[in-house]
Design brief:
homodimer; about 675 residues; alpha/beta; TIM Barrel; 4 domains; six-stranded antiparallel β-sheet; 16 helices; about 25% helix; about 25% strand
Chain lengths: ~675, ~675
């Protein structure tokens, strides 16, 4: 790690620590003043840990501070507030009674977040490490000198791994660029882009810039600026490593901000490999999608620490690490069948394993399976059906397979990604903007749009652009497929809530009347999509959109659920899956989702049906919902996995109509020549 | 009925039939034209029943037509469309490829809707009745003459009931003024209000103006205009009835538009009574709230027709009318205990009862109980605890106790109203505007705000007014209580989703990240509000808001539910009820609701707790959740009801600490002197 652990330099250069815009706690004007107007004092660091943040009260920092009436959303003019250095506070004059006031300000980070995490969770007792900001040329020089010295001291090392680059995730979590700011970098941005960013660009009134929030134009510009900076900063470091005949790997995890290794110019660095820590299949697909490096490694949870990164006990008496690993591997393995993963790894204190011999044994089994799967990939990619899926989001390829870090269990988008990560279809990621500007690539035959209204996944304001609606309408009208989950294409203010309701054949009431919609007349049992679901459906979803109405005579509810009993006259039926035909194309709507065998199967069927490829669905498919398979034509082998903890028996439908019967031990991987 | 059944006059005066603005079906520009622009033809009446609507293509009608690009929401200038009389269509030129186009136009109603309903559901075979529009002086004169003739023919009648007034509910359902329009009335409006209304004021792009939609300024003006018209039109009719020594009643149901009998100047008519048809308690409270008339009658379902108004079979072999009436009466009776209802009634074909003697017997029982309850009210109102509730909505007192007609089972607001209709608290209804302008009346100690974001119940755009937020913040800060259900004070675009999150102590993520919120640290079992709920809560709600986060350190989750299992590390706990203290006041948040005994009790407790009146909650309270009581201090009597179909045993807590033990037969009403 290059930006922490150099406390001697950091102490001598406190002005070169990393910085962040923070949104203060909001203070309610208590109505004590004259005529409702009064002075309100906002203590800037109130509620923030003082061992992490220190106010940057320099004049160039204060140029960026902003104070808001959060009740009205209006920024206060400068003459309405002043900084009180003694109190570390901002004082607002003429505050309106019962309004909420908040300030955005700049703070130094005096304790690097991962180091602090290890102090708290893993009882580290070392001196807190201060993060240096490579925005300063002096820091970059220091980093180079430190790396050179380290390389000199470690001539035996053949692979150098950047455990971290420079900036950690901001307060918005995964992918938030909030920790990349400084007056120096912001001034360089202004010179290059011709306009000035504000604190609010980064704080958004305290919501910050999580991955699930669609990026503003300003924030997107800043990301591009930071990526350029990352490339300039990193190239000499990689070159130094290569010059000494070593390989350079990096961990895509804690301090990856600015790198965006899935797209852009990252490949120009010539980095040799990526390591991605994973719980789930979709995370393994992130590693698999990092095509900018030749070697892709996944690092398993649980780490060899007493507690998991999530706080769950693992290598301690209450822990069940072997069971945990079984769970993770069953999910990750599905993804490994679809995309080549070159290496697997673990990390932490190996000494902790002494008390868990069954864990060590299972790691050996996982390693065997992973090697077997990698070998299958070596003779070429696995068979994928004639379905090419484009998943839409605000990020497109840049954040392919990403959601908000580890699994967001309440998120329909994340649950869908997890199911998708092991399905035999082609998958790529496109941004709303590129679809609006250029339409869909010719090979794509199904588009997926999923998530809650207003998010980067569903699209939010992107749907106000008629070009996006036009492109997707045309795509389906001319024979394409659309699969929407949750609140696809949702945007307030129109005559429809779903801007693609005319394609989906279903909409949520734009202003919810919450009537007693009974869909009896539109139910269609035994549809291809729901063929493996219990009669009617009754699928288990983590989230489900109510108040749906069918808006096309061609729409059919193919799976539904009863949500209540009514002594009067209503059926309380709620659609779960709606299939529709639109011109030459098709659409499928899921009112919610959850990653489980029945839903994964329904999603697979929906993708094939939407693409008009039902006939191809049976090829290389397991009968049993708990079994999945991947056929490797190059290797002439078929891999079949049992995702469940029970022994299963399944048939695999082969190309040409044959069947292969298999008995599978719990969680087994079986490989057959075919 | 004065506006229908005069077909001879109607046939001779087709230009004086009632009219309505309709939003045409949307037509998708199919992309066949040159460079993406083409001509699109919108057949105006496509999809509408031709036996109900006839195009009004007169020049003064066409002045009001509008054509929209619904994809962008933009109105097309006149030169972009023309009317094709032969096709009954509007042709749009230069339509953009894949955009949706729709037209608003004016149509005559040639078949009155209730008459048509009876033809369809009850097999009436009479000539379809055409509805006349009293906007025309000739129609008003004709109505007067018809009424005079009828009164002359029926000297024996002592009570004249207006089964209908003039205009039925518009296409938006209950309370929609869409059927009151005509070029003549719109011109009179323009002269009086100084501006011109458009078709879109009434169609809203096909969403029309349901009660659950917050009214626009223009629509509210039109409602006031129509109420004035209603008063002018109705006064001479009522006077005629009174002049002959008869009483005038009216049915609050089918054609009540314009009357708004709960507020305004309706009382000036001197009408003698109201009849309201009811399934539920909240509807009985509408009748009870009609203080503009001295006599209030409720008319029970099921009507003596083979099928219920909802289509449910009743007086026919598949029907179970006695069971239905038991269900309705159990709910309605709770409301009758809280407010005086003077009369009960039924309607329909009495001959149908012959085959249902048990129904007739049960009607006798209902009548006995209703008379008993009315007698209790005669010596004064029942005891209500020291809790005075103001329910907020866009409508306030004008639509007190109303939702969207009969029960909307999926609506948290409607379910809450039903529970509230039988609780021993004072209830009034206030509009967001009057609260923003004048604050809360001094006697109110709890405010209720409930419903889905964007509705007239939750408030929608009303929450952008800082004055509303100020007033309610002040109210709670100074000791008041706030109870929010569903999406209270919700409005997009701020740093909070709930604009009163600082008071409620809880918010939904403004941009849903849908993380794995586990509320373990904030759960508080055994709270006063959840004292009767199963440990932890696990209440049954028809709707429940996910992605909640506690935003105040004083907030406590007092009821919660487990929504799933997670093999990894998450608890899948979702808050159901959150209690918070804010300055000197309190707030309670319900993430959903459903009218049932456990939730009704929790709502009652929440109202008392929010008002700081826990100590008073036990007075005149039944232990058993299925039993409720009302104490009538004037009569010195206590009425206890068993709402369930099982025998129950309950204690009633009396003032001063005493207890009365009772055994109650299924659905029993017991009255005791105390």
């Amino acid at each position: 790690c290059l930006i922490r652990g150099d406390n001697a330099f950091a102490r001598a250069n406190r002005d070169k620590l990393q910085q962040i815009f923070l949104a203060s706690r909001e203070v309610l004007a208590g109505g004590e003043g004259d005529g409702g107007a009064e002075r309100v004092s906002i203590e800037l660091l109130a509620g923030f840990p003082r061992d992490v943040y220190a106010l940057n009260a320099s004049p160039e920092s204060r140029e960026y501070w902003q104070v808001f009436d959060r009740t009205t959303g209006e920024e206060l003019p400068r003459e309405r507030w002043r900084f009180l250095p003694d109190k570390g506070a901002v004082e607002v004059s003429g505050a309106r009674r019962w309004h909420r006031y908040g300030a955005d300000f700049l703070a130094f980070e005096i304790w690097e977040s991962i180091n602090r995490y290890n102090h708290r969770v893993n009882n580290w007792k070392t001196e807190p490490e201060m993060p240096l900001d490579p925005a300063h040329p002096e820091v970059r020089e220091r980093m180079k000198a430190n790396l050179a010295a380290w390389l000199d001291r470690n001539p035996h090392v053949s692979v150098v791994r950047f455990t971290t680059f420079y900036y950690g995730n901001g307060r918005g979590g995964w992918g938030d660029y909030g920790r990349t700011v400084s007056p120096r970098a912001l001034e360089l941005f202004r010179q290059r882009y011709g306009y000035r960013l504000t604190a609010e660009t980064f704080t958004n009134g305290g919501l910050y810039n999580p991955t699930h929030r669609p990026p503003s134009k300003e924030y997107a510009d800043w990301m591009a600026f930071q990526h350029d900076f990352f490339m300039e900063t990193t190239r000499p470091l990689v070159d130094m490593i290569h010059a000494r005949g070593k390989k350079a790997f990096f961990l895509l995890g804690d301090q990856w901000i600015g790198s965006e290794p899935l797209e852009g110019r990252f490949a120009e660095l010539g980095m040799d490999g990526v390591v991605k820590s994973v719980f789930n299949g979709f995370e393994a697909r992130i590693a698999g999608a990092t095509e900018s490096v030749p070697v892709r490694e996944i690092r398993f949870h649980p780490y060899f620490f007493p507690k998991e990164v999530t706080g769950k006990p693992t290598f301690c008496p209450e822990g069940t690490p072997t069971e945990d690993l079984r769970t993770y591997w069953a999910d990750i393995r599905r993804a490994c069948l679809r995309v080549r993963i070159d290496r697997i790894g673990f990390g932490g204190y190996v000494s902790l394993l002494e008390k868990f011999p069954d864990f060590v044994e299972y790691v050996a089994e996982v390693s065997r399976q992973a090697r077997t799967i990698r070998a299958l990939h070596e003779a070429g990619a696995p068979y994928a059906g004639p379905v090419n899926v484009a998943v839409l989001s605000s990020w497109g390829r840049t954040r392919a397979w990403m959601c908000s870090g580890h699994m967001q269990h309440a998120s329909v988008y994340n649950q869908m990604l997890e199911s998708l990560s092991g399905l035999p279809v082609g998958v790529e990621f496109l941004s709303f903007r590129e679809v609006a500007e250029r339409g869909l690539p010719a090979h794509v035959n199904v588009v997926v749009n999923a998530g809650r209204s207003g998010t980067a996944w569903s699209g939010g304001e992107a749907w106000r652009d008629p070009a996006l609606v036009e492109r997707l309408t045309e795509f389906v009208a001319r024979g394409g497929g659309l699969v929407g989950l949750g609140e696809p294409s949702a945007c307030e203010g129109g005559d429809r809530f779903f801007r693609l309701a005319h394609v989906l054949g279903v909409d949520r009431e734009p202003v919810p009347g919450e009537g007693n919609a009974d869909y009896g007349g539109w139910l269609e049992a035994g549809h291809f999509i729901a063929a493996d679901a219990p009669a009617g459906g009754g699928l288990e979803f983590v989230s489900s959109l109510p108040n749906l109405e069918l808006v096309s005579p061609d729409a059919r509810v193919v799976a539904w659920v009863k949500t209540g009993e009514c002594a009067y006259f209503h059926k309380y039926l709620q659609p779960q899956i709606v299939a529709n035909r639109f011109r030459s194309g098709r659409s499928v709507y899921f009112a919610g989702f959850k990653y489980n065998p029945a839903n994964t199967r329904a999603l697979g069927r929906a993708l094939f049906w939407a693409a008009g490829q039902e006939a191809a669905f049976d090829e290389w498919r397991c009968d049993d919902l708990h079994a999945e398979c991947a056929y490797f034509p190059g290797a002439g082998r078929l891999a079949v996995v049992n995702n469940s903890r029970e022994a299963r028996r399944t048939a695999v439908h082969l190309t040409g109509g044959g069947r292969l019967e298999l008995e599978l031990e719990p969680l087994a991987l079986a490989v057959r020549e075919v």
